[in-house]
Design goal:
By secondary structure, the protein is an alpha+beta fold. It folds into 2 domains: 1-62, 2-Layer Sandwich (Translation Initiation Factor IF3), CATH 3.30.110; 65-221, tt1808, chain A. The chain contains 7 helices and 12 strands. The protein has helices at residues 10-17, 33-42, 65-84, 117-120, 150-156, 193-206, 208-221; strands at 2-4, 25-28, 49-54, 57-62, 90-91, 96-99, 104-107, 110-113, 136-140, 160-164, 169-175, 178-182. The strands form 2 sheets. A 6-stranded mixed sheet has the order 1-2-4-3-7-6, with helices on both faces. A 6-stranded mixed sheet has the order 5-8-9-10-11-12. Strand 10 and strand 11 (169-175) form a beta hairpin. Helix 6 (193-206) runs antiparallel to helix 7 (208-221). The protein is globular and about 60 Å long.
Length: 223
């Protein structure tokens, strides 16, 4: 992890990201919100970077190809489950969620509207001042960097977070001002941790297409 001093400009941070190795993190304390907004615009075409901002503290994570593969597969599995279960879902990928009045912003690996899907269908731009936050956010957490985002997601009102560390999936639901680990998902009931892990293991051994097929077969076999 690299830490930069206060009074760092977005140009200096932009340059630093060009030399950020896969799986590493850049942390800047005392970073201005307006500079953060400029940085988001500058880095919009760099999908391997994940930015989070919490009251002046900026973190930039450079994700690895392994990280990206897991995120892609998890997102695909969620869509497959919703299709097979006839659940309306709206995926919003690694969108940036932010509230200037809270000085908080974050990018997950994947996010979904389920309970609130009907409210954002057809919208190309979502504004959290008027629109709901995503119901579900997925975080691949290979380096234990994702948990610092929980306070940001809580402030934005995200109902559920899924963490995957390359071996285990964990569900967290927002209750009484904090996220509590649970054994079942409320956003997507029926998509169990065991079913996800089984499909992810198939992905590791046989690839993404086989993982999607396995999940479809399991859902259909339940009738």
């Amino acid at each position: 992890m690299r830490v930069m001093s206060t009074q760092t400009t977005h140009d200096e941070v932009r340059e630093a990201t060009e030399h950020l190795p896969d799986g590493s993190t850049l942390v800047i304390h005392g970073f201005d919100w307006d500079e953060y907004e400029l940085l988001l615009a500058d880095l919009r075409d760099t999908p391997h970077l994940r930015l989070s901002y919490d009251s002046g503290n900026l973190r930039i994570v450079s994700i690895s190809p392994e990280h990206e593969d897991y995120a892609t597969v998890l997102a695909d599995l969620i869509v497959v489950f919703c299709d097979e279960s006839e659940i309306t879902v709206e995926a919003r990928g690694r969108a940036t969620w932010r509230k200037p009045e809270l000085t908080k912003g974050v990018e997950g690996d994947a996010c979904f509207y389920v309970q609130n899907a009907d409210r954002i269908i057809g919208k190309r731009r979502i504004d959290l001042a008027d629109d709901p936050p995503p119901d579900l956010v997925v975080e691949v957490d290979l380096t234990t960097e994702a948990r610092h985002k929980f306070s940001i997601y809580a402030a934005l009102g995200v109902a559920e977070i899924w963490l995957y560390d390359g071996e285990v999936v964990r569900f967290y639901q927002f209750r009484d001002g904090d996220y509590v680990e649970t054994s079942d998902s409320k956003v997507l009931p029926g998509l169990s941790i065991e079913l996800l892990v089984e499909s992810l293991n198939v992905n590791r051994e046989q690839g993404q297409t086989a993982a999607r097929r396995r999940l479809r077969q399991k859902i259909r076999s339940r009738g």
